[in-house]
Amino acid sequence: MTSYDFYQNTYRGSAIPEEEWPGYEARAAAQLARYKRIYQVNTSRPRSGDMAVCAMAEAFYSFDRLANGEGGPIQSAYIGSVSVSYGGLAGQSLDLSPRGREKELYRCVSQYLDIYRGCG
Prior knowledge:
The chain is of the alpha+beta class. The longest helix has 20 residues.
C-alpha cells in the first residue's frame, strides 16, 4: 500500500484530497497488479512501484473529475456570487474511452517501471 504521505512528500502530488486517497490508491494498486500478471514488469529504482501507483491514482482521479464535468480548464466564472464551470477543450481532447484510459494508465506506469510483453 502506498501511503498518502508518500504521495504528498515523495511523489509531490497534490491533486487528490487525503480523504479520497484510499480509493484511488486501491484502484491504481489493482491496475498495477493486473499489469504484473499480463506483462513483464521490472523496477529500476527503489519505490518506483509506489511512484507508478501515484501516477495512475492521479489519472483515475482526473478521469472521474472529467467524466463528472468537474475537471479541465475553467470555462466560465462569475465573481459576484462565486460560480465556476469546468470543461471545454480538455475534456474534448482527452480520450475518456476505455481504450484511451488504458493507454493513459500504461503511459503512467511506464514512466516509473520497465513494462513490456514477452520473455525477459
